[in-house]
Request: fold
Amino acid sequence: MQERAVKEEANGTFLRQGSLRRVLPSSHKEHLFTRQNEDINKFYRIFHQEYIVLAEYNMLQRENLQGIYVIPSKESCLLWFGVIFVRSGIYEDGVFRFNIYLPEEFPDGGHPKVVFQSNTFHPVIYKDTNELHLLDGFPTWYKDQNHIWQVLKYISWIFYNFNSSLAHSVNIEALNMYRNNQVEFKQKVKDCVKYTQDHIYDPSPVEDKHYLTFEKYVPSVHDSVKATMMTQSHEERIRASGYSWVSPGTFKPLSK
Reply:
């Protein structure tokens, strides 16, 4: 037994420390420590990324964004569910759902992606994919200057400032129809709006507790909540949403 152990030790397959114990060779130790460091770095990146997303969400709550609502997915902070209630203009009364997809390397990795969940006939929305064209609004995405709340304002802008948004057109069919046949264009938009209204109470298409769903108004249930909301100021509503561990307008977590 001892003779075999000495031979194995000479071959470098283990090191003796006081008794015939088998331990990892040096090369295996280095590999183990490297893997542990990689795991720690990966954990840190995920932790840091989630704090940055938390900071983004905190920042948009402090913006006066009317009629547009978003929330990160429970399953992934890189997917946000959103909806905009359009209150005036050509798309008045539309309830347009959309998803925001953040890049895997967020806040690095370039532009977020906004995809509407129903066919939305608009010159600034790609016909085949329902993706919002962001490049004219944000030619370059600077992680220290650009934020998700700005994307939400851009979404509002294309509906409420329709004529100005035509300069960013990518759906040429919609653009030409608006210029040459506004009656037909408005009918197409009216059909889109009606579709969103008909499907406003649809159940969630995904298994995610944060997906935005709506219920029909029940006075006995909702009247008291409505009265409270109507009497609160914007600042009170923010405070009612809870406390934040992120300084306003920054990405710094655990700050006073």
Notes: Helices lie at 2-10, 26-61, 148-160, 162-165, 172-180, 182-198, 219-231, 234-240. DSSP finds eight helices and four strands in the chain. The beta strands are 68-72, 79-85, 95-101, 113-116.
